[in-house]
Structure formats: structure tokens, C-alpha cells
Amino acid sequence: MSNKDTSISFHVSGMHCASCASNIQRKLKKTKGVAEANVNYANEQATVTFNSDQTSEEDLTKAVASLGYTAHLHTDEAGDVAETERALELGSLKTKVIVSGLLSLILISSMIPGLPEILRSPWLLWLLTTPVQFWAGRRFYLGAWSGLKNLTTNMDTLVVLGTSVAYFYSVAVVIFSQQLMSAGLTTHVYFEASAAIITFVLLGKYLEIRAKAQTSSAIKELLNLQAKTAWIKQGNDWVEVPIDLVQPGDLLLVKPGQKIPVDGEVVVGETAVDESMITGESLPIAKHVGDLVVGATLNQSGSIQMKAVKVGSQTMLANIIRLVKQAQGSKPAIQALVDKISSYFVPVVIGLAVLTFVMWMWWGPEPKFLPALISMINVLIIACPCALGLATPTSLMVGIGKGAKLGILIKDAQSLETAHLVKAVVFDKTGTLTEGKPVVQTSQLFSDDKQLISNLLKAVEELSYHPLAGALVNWADEHSGSKKKLQVINFQDVSGSGVKALVNQQKVFIGNQKFLQDHKVALPQAIVKTIEQLKAKGQTVVFMSLDGQVTALFGIADGIRKSSPAVTRSLQKMGITSIMLTGDNKQTAKAIASQVGISQVLAEVLPADKEKTIRQLRGQYPVIAMVGDGINDAPALATADISIAMGGGTDAAMESAGITLLRSDISLVPTALKLSQATMRNIRQNLFWAFSYNIILIPVAMGALYPVFGILLNPVLAGAAMAFSSVSVVLNALRLKTINIK
Ligand code: ADP
Ligand code: MG
């Protein structure tokens, strides 16, 4: 990807089957300057990566338009456009289904014997069928025509071929009935078949679009969370303004029971906020001055004033929506295979239909022509690959949407697909299995100047971002009387080891045993026992030295998360191994591991080596998930097959990890893996039904039942079966919504 490459996602309207999507995708890929294009039928989104020097957004719009579809490049409107269009399409489909349904009913009942001759007149039947064929069925002709112009075929081609054969054959029969009769040929017309097929396919479409709208309900629900207005300070008054007018830096008032309008910081007051809509966490979170609040969450008890920090597309909610949409539009590997199969499907089916006709004309019983014609129509109608095209994307949309609701943000379809294969989960220790809130439990000083030690400790560790540094600074604050500020020079944070600096011309080292030994600081023999005891308790031992002399030792404890043991247990039940990876020393790591029920511990691994360690584990476990905090574990996370970030919703984690847990709750790890398994199972069911439907029914349509049972499939039933297959796939995907994966 060169730096000129830009990537955009836009809504495409006018698609009515999966092959439309693959045709548009092919056209976009062929457009000059386009590196990658992906068109998803299920959510009607196209994602295109292109070189902005060689092609423009306008070129892309034109490419889409040349096929007879419309690209809506301006994302703000896209949601509304999709919504209104869907409503319009559903409305017009409904009318067409009702009208052509009624006409088909009349046509079919005209076959009842004993009706007055006039009702069975072929001319009347012709008259009744024509609006169904060309008014209700117009969309199929348009679709087939735009395919033909680009020398491709699609589902519409099949419907048009099948029904037109029935219709025009019948027309010919009506016009030439005299001649046919005198030649001793039958004069049966098939108007009702054509009308019924069109009605069923339209009905299937109608149900499919309605159900498809529900697969994207997660996005709609997220959008609805947004507050519509905010109370803003203007002069001395609070005024209610539309949310779009809020700017970063504005002072906002949020009363109890109101939604937090945008992301920001509490400046006055305190309250409890229900964040469940974003994180899934059911307990309200206490918020004080200085705490961050997230837009769309619900303020419960107190009245607060907040400063707007992130507004519009920058808010956490907007980011979540964007990522969920992107993920829903992305394609997993399994879909690439299905796409490939579908692209051969239509031409193959047309070939089979012709073959069927020829076979019947060759070997069929007399009168050969009618069963040959009927069987050909049946093949064209029944073999439509629409169910195949819907199988994967609909399940994915429901699965990813369900994840977002549970507080699991899945960044792409591939992560969701891969996650079901995970055999080992590697957990970072600090902040993942543990609370990440270390506290100094034990301290031992080897110098009388307690004052100096705490001042040095504070001055140096204040410069480090390591969680342990925070614990040491807190300890120093509690134990120092005079808060003298010391000047620190040459500060260095040695990742995975400790920190060093020069203060008052004295060399200060603070870090683990190895770090001190590497710098030739010897540990007094007398403290070895203490160290062992602390480690056995699961405390991390940190040493401080001053000019080569150990001056203090701290035992720091970081309590395990309450849910950690249950998480490793439920992973074990799923047949997944839990592994701990940490930079901390072996004994401490082992002590913590035994508390959470992990037997495989990889300790004393430097941050830079964590990545290599993951790669080595690959030999043992083919698919590995890594759970970390997403910030300092980034390289290791990137190496794992699935990265799960305990983001608590930080932007960095959301962008980098395949899966982000929106609240710091590792019990979401097994939930995410189970969601992946459930989604993949659902996709497989869909594919199985879609394929077996075709494999079983194509031979039936060709007339396989005829030689044995003398049964020839009625084309009306072929139409019904085709409609049913698409609808059943979408309904099965929706079932995923209600599956309990806890
Ligand atoms: P983890 O893998 O558990 O997150 P790290 O790799 O970040 O651990 O750190 C490993 C060890 O290095 C810590 O357990 C600690 O002993 C030492 N260390 C790292 N940074 C600091 C620091 N700022 N102050 C004191 N000790 C540190
Ligand atoms: Mg860490």
C-alpha cells in the first residue's frame, strides 16, 4: 500500500442479490488505480482502497453507476439513504407482491375444471400475466440487462430466462393455437407458472430484505444511544442545544436521568453513571471531578458539569459504530471461497438448463417438448445461488452485532472466524490476570535516611509509566515528610527491567534483581530469605540502589482479578490451554499463576521478546490468542493469531487489536471465543443448507424423479423452493441473536 492509497467505505443501493455484489466488486477492482475492493451484499457496503492520483471518488461512483447501481459516497447521508431506500423498496415490493399474488391466484384457479369457458380463455390468462411479467418483474429484466451489458450473469439472468421462456412460449401457443392444433400438438399454456415464480421470488426478496434489516439492528441500536441535545453554558444561562453544536471545550450540564451528551471530563459535582450500553457492565460507575465520562451513557444520581473533550465522529460511540460497520462489511476467508463458487454458479446453471432440455428432447417420452421445457425452467429457477450469497454475511452481521452488545468489539470478520480455532490463550500477567493496581505491601530500608529514600524514589519513578512505578510513588508520598523536589538527570526507563537516573550526582537504580545484578550491584546475603518469602506470596520484589549499594527493597502485590480463576476454568472446559506471559520473575509469576489456575508460566520475558515467545508457542499450538492491555503489549498482540485487548475502550486498543473488550473484564475472553464458535457454526449450517438445497433440488428440477416415479416438478413449486431457501438462511442467521453463549 503506497502512501497515496486511501480507503473509503460507502453505501451501494440497487443490489438485489449476491452476484450483483460480486459484479460490482469485479468492476471496481478493474477500475484503474484501485488496489482492493470489497462489496458486501448483506450490508450493502463497498470498501475500496485506491490510489488517489490515478482515480477519484467520482470515477468509483461512475464505475458503480455503469452497472446500474448507485454509490452513496458521503457517509453521513449513507445511513439515512440506506434507511429510506429500504423503506421505499419494501413498500414497492409489498404492492407488487400483493398484486401479482392476486393475479397468480386467479391464474392458478383458472385451472380448476368446470369453470366457464371464458375464465379459461388463453387470451384472458395472457392479459392477466402480462403486468406480473413486466411490471412486477421489471427489476429482474433490469438486473439481467445490466449484467448482459457487462457480459456477466447474475441471479436476475436466471429468473428472466426461466420466466420468459414460460411466458413467451405461452404467448406463441395463444397466437398459433390454430396451427398447433391442426398439427396435432398440445396447446397448453404456462402463464400461471411464470406469474407464480415471479410472485414467489418477489415475496422471498421482501422477506429477505425485512429480515436483513434486523441483522443490522445492532448498529441502529447503537445510533439510537446518542443523546439528541445537550445543555450548554452560554453567558450565565444553561441552554439546550442540538448535539451537533457542541464543540470541544464547551461546558455542559448533565442532570440526573439524562444521557451524557459527548465524551468529556467531570469538572463540577459527582454522580454514578450507568455505562452498560457501551461496556455491558451492569453496575453504575462512580464519577468524581477529573473522571472521564463517555457520551451516550446514562447519568443516574447526581447533577454534574462536564467539559466536552471529544464530539461528533471523535467520540467513543462513533468509533465503536464505525468499527462495527467496518467489521460487518469485511469478509472472512470462508467467504472468498463461497464467492468463487458462486461466480461459476450462474453460467453452470444455464449450461445445466440447456443440457436438461437437450436430454429430454433426446431421451424423453413423447410428447418430448413440454417436459423438456418445464424441466429447463425448473433448473433455471431452483438453482439460483442467492441463499449461498447470504449464508456467510448475514451470520457475521448478527455475530458481530451481538458481540458489540456484550461489550466485545470485533474489528474484522477474519478475527471472528479465526477465534473459533484458538487452542491456547496467552495472558499477560500485570493488568490482565491481575487488577493492574499494584500496592507496596512490604518495605525494608537499609539506610537511616528514610526521607531521602522516599524523595529519590518519588523523583525517579514519577518519570516512569510502568504500573509498578505508580505503586512506588504512592508509597513515597505516604512515607515522606518533606516533599523536597529533587532534580533528576539522565533518566532511563529500561523496559522490562527498571529505571535508572542520576540524582544529586548519585547513581540511582530501581528495578528487579537481574537489573541490579547487571549493573554490578550485589544483594546482601541477609535479605535473600526475605526475597524468597515475598516471591512465594506472589509479590513482585523491586530493589533500589544508590551508588552501587542496595538501600531499599519493596514487595509489591497486585491482587488477581476476581474472575481470573473462573476464566481459566471455563477455557479448560473448552479444551483451551491458558498460558501466563510476564516480565516478572519466575517465583512471583508461579505464585500468581497457581492462584488463577494456570500451570504453564513463561516468566522473565522481556517485552521485546514476548513477540518471539508467541511465535515459538505456535509450534505447539497452531492458533493462539493473546490477551493484553493493548498499549505496552502491542507487538506481542500483533504476532498472535487473535489479539484481545483489555481496552476498557481506549482508542489505541480499539484500533490495534482484533478484538477489544470494552470493559476490563477477562470473563469476556471465553465469551468472545464462544461467540466465534457459535457464529461459525451458524455460517456452516447456512452453507450446508444452501449447498445441499442446490445439490438435492437441481437433479429433481432436471427431472430425476421422472424415470422412477413419473413425477415432474411443477415450476410453481420451483419458485416457492427458491424463495424459501433464501429466507431460511436469513432466519437461521437471526437465530444467532437469541442464542445464549454465556
Ligand atoms: P509484566 O510482563 O508483568 O507486565 P514488565 O515486563 O513490564 O512486567 O516488567 C518486568 C519487571 O521489571 C517488573 O516486574 C519489575 O520488577 C521491573 N520493572 C519494570 N519497570 C519498572 C519500574 N519502572 N520500576 C521498578 N521496576 C520495574
Ligand atoms: Mg505489562
Could you explain how this protein is built, in words?
This protein is an alpha+beta fold and 742 residues long. The chain has 28 helices and 26 strands. The strands form five sheets. It has a seven-stranded mixed sheet with strand order 14-26-25-24-15-22-23, sandwiched between helices. The chain has a six-stranded antiparallel sheet with strand order 6-5-7-13-8-11, with no helix packed on it. The model has no long low-confidence stretch (mean pLDDT 87). It binds adenosine-5'-diphosphate and magnesium ion (MG). Magnesium ion (MG) is lined by residues 428, 430-431, 632.
C-alpha end-to-end distance:
40 Å
Strand content: 15-25%
Strand order of the largest sheet: 14-26-25-24-15-22-23
What are the segments in which pLDDT stays under 50 over at least 5 consecutive residues? none
SSE blueprint:
Elements (H helix, E strand, L loop, with lengths): L4 E9 L4 H13 L3 E7 L4 E7 L5 H10 L3 E3 L2 H35 L12 H15 L1 H12 L5 H21 L1 H6 L8 H25 L1 H9 L3 E6 L2 E6 L8 E4 L8 E6 L2 E4 L1 H4 L5 E3 L4 E2 L4 E2 L4 E7 L5 H14 L3 H31 L5 H14 L3 H21 L1 E3 L2 H7 L4 E5 H5 L5 E7 L4 H12 L5 H13 L8 E7 L3 E6 L2 E6 L1 H6 L9 H9 L3 E7 L2 E9 L6 H10 L3 E5 L4 H11 L3 E3 L4 H11 L6 E5 L5 H6 L2 E4 L5 H6 L2 E3 L6 H35 L3 H4 L5 H24 L4
Parallel strand pairs: 15-22, 15-24, 22-23, 24-25, 25-26
Antiparallel strand pairs: 1-3, 1-4, 2-3, 5-6, 5-7, 7-13, 8-11, 8-13, 9-10, 9-12, 14-26, 16-21, 17-18, 18-19, 19-20, 20-21
Helix pairs in contact: 3-4, 3-8, 4-6, 4-8, 5-6, 6-8, 6-13, 8-28, 9-11, 11-14, 12-13, 12-14, 13-26, 13-28, 14-26, 14-28, 15-26, 17-18, 20-22, 26-28
The structure holds adenosine-5'-diphosphate (ADP) and magnesium ion (MG).
The site of adenosine-5'-diphosphate has 21 residues, from α16, α18, β18, β19 and β20.
